[in-house]
Amino acid sequence: MADPESTVTYRVERKGLLSPEFQLSSPEGPVGVLTLERGRGMLVGGRWSPLSGEVLTMRRDPGLLRSQFSLWTEGHEWLGSSLRPHVVRREVMLHTGSRPLRMLPLTGLHSGWVLLAPKTGDMARFHLPLLGGAGRIEVYRKVDFELVVFAWFLGLQLRLESLWPGPAEAAGRAAARLAG
Question: Which of 5, 66, 93, 134 is the residue whose CA sits 20 to 30 A from 156?
């Protein structure tokens, strides 16, 4: 069972307007930089450059659906993909090869997403800034950091859609986790 308090909290600072960079830092110091790539007015990809470790590339998959991206290493190893199966529902599916994960909007009137495992609930929460200021990532249990960065990247695109409170399912899983 996951601890109700976050195990690690990351602070995310945005720099730049047209080609933004997001600097992630943990309580111990900086972790890396996420850079967004735009083409023809829309987001076409991103690049995660950690201070130590492997550089990751996020790129849009061909298709008409929003949030249809894949995550790759520099060595061209596939780590995961995302899909938003329905235009109206605010749910993003993440496929990693081992288990499917879901992203749902946070409950309440604020911008952010929650990353859910199929049976055990909350894995991480992403609090996105609307205009300026810093964002926050709360990781509740062991999860690959690459997936945390990928989920933040996806959440950035859908930040306005997360303003309206998320489904009761997200709150129910969180409440069950807190109740023990």
Answer: 5
